[in-house]
Amino acid sequence: MFATAVAVLTVLSSGYFTVSGLLAPGILVPGGDAAAPRAFAAYMAARSIVLLGGLALFAALRAWRPLALVLALNAGVQLVDTVIGATRHELAQTLGPACFALLLGVAAWSLLRAPLPRHAA
């Protein structure tokens, strides 16, 4: 299923940046190894872990409506990342999140438009 594939791709790619930000923020941004950026990276990672955990959990449980919500929330995060990349005039940091926002949004929309499964009485 498309939404599950997008969820897995998001968990893997965003998970990489989460772990990188925690272990070596200087790899992601210059000066990231100072105390303040490391603390900020840890706070951001905590939020990312919750969103990514929700994606993984709801995809594994095949809980489509909650998965759609978390996909949409992640799309919102990627849209904000797109704006940040654009204001900093960084092409890769603009196009990457924009592509993910589009994929996440389409995946969420596809789940919301799908009919609910019927349960036997």
Description:
The structure is a single chain. By secondary structure, this protein is an all-alpha fold. α4 packs antiparallel against α5. The longest helix has 27 residues. The chain starts with a helix and ends in an 8-residue tail after the last helix.
In short:
The protein is mostly helical and 121 residues long. Helix content is 83%, strand content 0%.
The major β-sheet equals: none
The run of helices and strands is: HHHHH
Round the mean pLDDT to the nearest integer and report it.
89
Instruction: Give the helix tally.
Output: 5
* Low-confidence parts: none
Q: How helical, in percent, are the residues?
A: over 70%
Multimeric state of these chains?
Answer: single chain
Distance between the amino and carboxyl termini: 26 Å
The rounded Rg comes to 16 Å
Please report which band the strand proportion falls in: under 5%, 5-15%, 15-25%, 25-35%, 35-45% or over 45%. under 5%
- Count of extended strands: 0
Question: Any idea what the shape is?
Answer: globular
Structural class, by secondary structure, is mainly alpha
Organism: Nonomuraea roseoviolacea subsp. carminata
Protein name: ABC-type nickel/cobalt efflux system permease component RcnA
Keywords: Membrane, Transmembrane, Transmembrane helix
Transmembrane segments: 40-60, 67-86, 92-112
